[in-house]
Specification:
2 copies of one chain form a homodimer. By secondary structure, chain A is of the alpha+beta class. Chain A is built from 18 helices and 11 strands.
Chain lengths: 442, 442
């Protein structure tokens, strides 16, 4: 089975190509908008976002707190990850087992993750069960038990996951690529480091919870079979009197350098290439997205065609836009056998340099169609929509409509893409490799 | 980010818990059924399955041909995989680049894979574009160019993917587990072996195409925003005069043994445990599914609770039902640090043996809710539905309704589960490990 994977933070499909699908196209825009979307910021700083999706029986919720890897205490990277596990081990009136049993009895499919900016808790299920679960999620973020035995288990698992990375050279490469490409602390891995994780104690985790689990700047997004008034009342009930304000400055440090080789006796060489781009709030955001689609969008993307299909150089190759607040990057990856690694890197770089020669109208047309289709399709998934409106609000302070996104895509012309690419050659590059030997960077 | 992965062939979520969601519950059953589903077998043996999903703009198509790893020629395992790549490299009036460009211009998200029974080609996109793509998919399976240069690239990529397995010990373990658990040729990996792939030639691939790409027993399933008459006419137009009949007997051979250790200097030890179960057409299928849910369904599943949450023994642990035609298996997995591997295996086995002591009503209730919720949610995804109705037809010769599945789940009682578990202790076990040293099997 083949796939074209994309960088994971944030998922470009789920978040960057965030679409707002107005099904009620026959009614005039603003009414359809009002019927479909809801946004409310409570006095304590928590913002509730809602999207009604007619025809669905399910709903999905995403709760994002400003506790990401970037705000992990300086010498305790991985702290948010430990905490996001630990808070699930008993909260409110339920111990760990009771809490898990309760959420399973609601039939909720759950996930949790830590990104650069946020800790996220998500669940999906039948709509009324998701809403019923708000009380438990309020307990989880506000009233976790934070037991010692849970802390020990959570830290053990985090250390194991870190050690296991040596068995996953591809994932290791992507972590290293961010570390060498982005300024610290944005480039730090949410998995932490062995040294930092070993320094953590239950008391430090408790202090971190008090410091970073706050309503201020938090986002609760829900999409699916919902009624706004009911949601608002439930969120008010469970989160309305939550208090607190996150503090703390981030001290920005440049990454260690531009080129890095991590020696590992692996069967394949893993190559990561990154370069800076504009943030997604920039007027040329869709100009850049189109260029990246042409480079690596569908199967007809240049990288896939040149590196994989024509030359059979490697099994997996892609590039994608990756978004942080106020800062965009393009990340690229190729995994290949050791003897083809140099040729793969050379071919990859050739394609990047070739971008400044411009793209064709046919390439742009395909890219537009691809991005619009995936936009509409993500509009049929409650989980994608909950993630997308939360991401939109965090990045832009508001939810975008489908028509706005469609118009933005349609407005991109081949002249604009080519002018941009001519004026903005890819680079400066960060190149990271994992494998038995270093490659020539020319 | 945590997840509870499941075995991949077939995905129990997408296929085994295949749900049929009748939204038109207010109209009486048979009419709702007729409005929602469609099934037609053409004289050439191709079966068309359709599911209308109101409220969707997209559609997803799955095309399954009886060319799976089990029918790969004896000394040429991997042949179906090479072929499933090669047929996409030019077909009908379009060369490789034109075909890729055309499908991207339709905005179709594509996938292809080879399982035990079938080669599958799938696509999803706006409904009218998916239907427009039928002509190209007809070319792909009926009139591929099968060029030498495409064959060389496809085989190179397959060899690379195989070599890359050493960097993915978890995936390698799951392949080895099937190989040692299932009788040959059902246990053979669709990725083939190096020796076999090197024997393949373009001529052999062409012969294999002539031999196995046939309408007889093929299934084309489409779900989403569709009209049955239109679909039927389009399929008839593009596939109606396709001829051919697959031949060939499968010679069943027992697996090499029950215990296998694959030495690898990995950071983690990967443990696979399998044992035989009843096929999914058996009356007790949902009895078994409930037992497996209780063992490893939600976060409150026994394996997750005991092995991971309570004892912090390993990062990833699960078990799931895996289905072949006429034969079921339970597959289990745990990945852990080398020093905890023996304790993890012991704890895993303890949980398996403990099954025969029975389960509680509360455990069964949670399992039912979880399975019904995931059933309803997969009913909101066109790709899940297309896969589910195709799987249902292949396994049972018909599509099942949601009510039928719900009734089957509801009919399971704690007495029935406990009687089954008492009479059917798990085993005999196949245990495979990948890591630096072998474990004690007691």
């Amino acid at each position: 089975m083949w796939e074209i994977p994309r960088p994971s933070e944030p998922p470009p499909c789920a978040y960057n190509s965030a679409s707002i699908l107005s099904r009620g196209r026959e009614v005039e825009g603003s009414r359809a908008l009002a019927e479909r979307y809801f946004q409310h910021t409570f006095p304590n700083g928590l913002t509730l976002l809602g999207e009604r999706m007619p025809g669905m029986q399910s709903a999905a919720m995403t709760l994002m707190l400003q506790a990401g890897s970037a705000t992990d205490p300086v010498d305790r990277s991985g702290s948010a990850t430990i905490l996001s596990d630990l808070v699930l081990r008993g909260a409110g009136s339920r111990d760990s087992k009771q809490l898990t049993d309760y959420l399973d009895r609601l039939g909720l499919q759950r996930s949790s993750s830590v990104g650069v900016h946020h800790s996220r808790f998500g669940c999906a299920g039948l709509a009324d069960r998701v809403i019923e679960g708000f009380g438990a999620y309020s307990d989880i973020v506000r009233r976790p038990h934070l037991p010692q035995v849970g802390f020990d288990a959570a830290r053990d698992l985090a250390l194991q996951a870190l050690a296991g990375l040596d068995d996953e050279p591809r994932q290791k490469l992507l972590i290293k690529l961010r570390e060498w490409h982005l300024p610290s602390p944005y480039g730090r891995s949410s998995m932490g480091t062995k040294e930092n994780l070993e320094k953590l104690t239950l008391e430090l985790a408790k202090a971190d919870h008090a410091q970073r689990y706050h309503p201020s700047g938090a986002i609760l997004a829900i999409a699916g079979h919902i009624e706004f008034e009911q949601i608002k009342a439930q969120v008010e009930k469970h989160f309305g009197n939550w208090k607190g304000q996150a503090e703390g400055d981030i001290k920005i440090m440049p990454p260690p350098g531009n080129f890095h080789h991590e020696e590992q006796q692996s069967e394949q060489t893993h190559i990561g290439i990154a370069w800076p781009s504009i943030p997604e709030t920039h007027d040329d955001y869709y100009t850049v997205r189109m260029a990246v689609e042409i480079l690596s969008g569908g199967m007809s993307g240049r990288l896939f065609t040149e590196v994989r299909e024509k030359r059979g150089l490697c099994y997996s190759v892609w590039a994608g836009y990756s978004s942080l607040k106020g800062q965009g990057s393009i990340l690229g990856y190729a995994g290949t056998s050791n003897d083809r690694a140099q040729a793969t890197l050379d071919c990859f770089m050739t394609e990047l340099h070739r971008l400044s020669d411009g793209v064709t109208q046919a390439e742009l047309d395909r890219a537009k169609i691809g991005l619009k289709a995936s936009t509409i399709m993500s509009g049929e998934s409650t989980s994608s929509r909950a993630g997308a409106i939360a991401h939109d609000f965090f990045m832009r302070g508001r939810i975008r409509t489908l028509d706005e996104i469609k118009d933005s895509i349609d407005a991109v012309t081949v002249d604009r893409v080519n002018a941009y690419l001519k004026a903005n050659k890819p680079g400066p590059f960060t190149i990271v490799t994992v494998g038995p030997k270093a490659l020539n960077i020319t």
